[in-house]
Each structure stands twice: as C-alpha cells, then as structure tokens.
Amino acid sequence: MMSKTPVMKALIYHGSGKKTLEDMPKPSLREATDVVVRMTKTTICGTDLHILKGDVATVAGGRILGHEGVGIIDETGTGVSHFRKGDRVLISCITACGKCEYCHRGMPSHCEQGGWILGNTIDGTQAEFVRLPFADTSLHPIPVSAEEDAMVMLSDILPTGYECGVLNGVVKPGDTVAIIGAGPVGLSALLTTQFYTPANIIVIDLDDNRLKVAMQFGATAMINSTDGKAVEKVMAMTVGKGVDVAIEAVGAAATFGICQEIVGAGGRIANIGVHGASVTLHLEKLWSQNITITTRLVDAVSTPMLLKSVMAGKLKPKQIITHYFALDEVIKACDTFANAGRECALKVILSAATST
Ligand code: ZN
Ligand code: ZN
To answer: Residue 356: pLDDT above 60?
Structure first.
C-alpha cells in the first residue's frame, strides 16, 4: 500500500529576484545523526535578502531559505542521543559536526561538513519542517519557561553581534565603542557590548528611527551619517583621540572607511559586515597606530552563554522584534523586511499556524 508523500509550505528561491511560497515534500531523515524539526517560529535575515538579490553564488535555485528559528523535534535519527521527539529546540545558523579539526578548534563556522549550510547549500528553516544534520552538536534545548520569540534572536544575530563584534573587538570596561550600522546585528552588538560596561557607545547609521532605537537600547550617543560628517563628529566627541573599538555592522566600503578613520591608537576594528566588494586599506595611516583588524564568520559557540543571559533577564533580545506574521505570509514579510527603513522594521517573526 502506498501512502501519499506529506507536503508542507516553504519559501523557495528561484534565482535572482524570484521567490515563491510553494508546497514541497516534507523532509525526511537521511543520516543517523539527523533530526526533522517542525518549525514553530522563524525569521528573515539580511543575508536572505542578499540571496534573493542573487548575491550569494552558493545558493542554487529551488532552495528553501532560512537559517534561524525554533521548533519541535518531529523525528530523530538512530544516532541522535541528546534529543527526543517532542523536544523544543533552538536551531543554530551554524551546523557543527563536532568531530572535524575546525569544530575541535571551536571554529565550527568552518566545519568540514557543516558551517553555514542551512538555507544555503541545504534546505532551510522558512518552511513547516526542516531536516537538520548533526543534531546533537548543532541544536540547543529550550528551557520550558523560555519565550520562543526571544529564542529566535539567538539563532544568528546575537551570537554574530557578540562574537564578531564584541569578542573580536575585545571591549573592556571604560572603552569608547563605536558601532557603525544599527540593523539587527549592530543592535545585537550594542546589547552584548554592555556586558563589559564600556564608558561610551556611539552608534552611527543613516536612519533616524534605528538611531532612536539604539538610544533606547543603551547607546550613549548617536550620529546620523547622511551628511558625511560622522568622522569629524566622532573625533570631536573623543577629543581627537578616536575610539577604542570600531564595530563595522554594515558590509560596505564607506562604513569600513569610517572605522579606519575613527579608530584610536591601540584600537580594534571588528568587522561583522558581509562585504561584496573590495575596500581600501589605509595602511599608510594605520601602520604605526597599534591597530588590530579582525574578521570572523559567526561560530555560534557563545549561544549557550547568551541563552542563559536571556533566561536570567540580563539580555532582552525580544525588543529587536518589530513585526509579526504567519509563516504563510512569508512573501509579505520579506517585502516588509526589504523596505526596513520605510516600514521601521528590525526583526520579523514568522509563526507557524500550529504554534502557540
Ligand atoms: Zn543570518
Ligand atoms: Zn566539524
């Protein structure tokens, strides 16, 4: 007797500029270390917008997008020992095999069988179900009392802002930190930089609404850089010394250029942004300034710590969420998120019909 293959709704990328909500076969287990998760909440990342524009060459047509979210385990492979059907889990944007050299070095972003593969080289989370490889080393259990919406912020943006911005920038008590870009990741860096009590946090953006939000989130000064005078304003605020840490959270030549001009002697430039074009490195000015420049793809190794901070109320990521949609409104949600300035959008939450 043949049973009909169950279907599910999913957001499919069909090449540059083309996306559709479609019925797709429900994913099934392939390896013993896989699980299948029924998604309850997911979201859209700036990276998804890059993919939809055709900027990310590794994403093939027909791919289900999404690398963030929470859900409930629906099926487990025979090799999965930490999770059972019915468990609520947080999905990490980084898949870790837990065994390769890079995983052992605490750098699963470069895992030989994982890394950023979800919604990239394998089907992702903007669907009713998702197959997740290496479940034991890539998923996190969600405490019973946790708010799911806040948990979604832990899949990507909080570890990214924290690891690539705050940890790589080595923020210390009393530092002056500048964050260039007040999107969801820049705001995540803003929230987590406060673990280290810097004296001043200057946030720079082109959008007044985002700057206003940054001030509510703990920034001590804001600069709208539309007039091209961000550098002189920062230098005036720091009596000509520049900042200790400049966190780049945009991914553009102009914003990386600002970081190079405002970093003070002994300072750190921590790049988070995804750069699609080359930038000019002003080594003729920086060579003698004891500067450190860092780059990193998020490893999501800080997620358990961040989760505990959220549960303890020390970190309140839910405030980054501005819009709520049903999962089958994902196309509308993409359009809202793509017009973030006009819509005053930061992070959107997509909820499955069956979730609470
Ligand atoms: Zn992302
Ligand atoms: Zn690995």
So the answer is: no
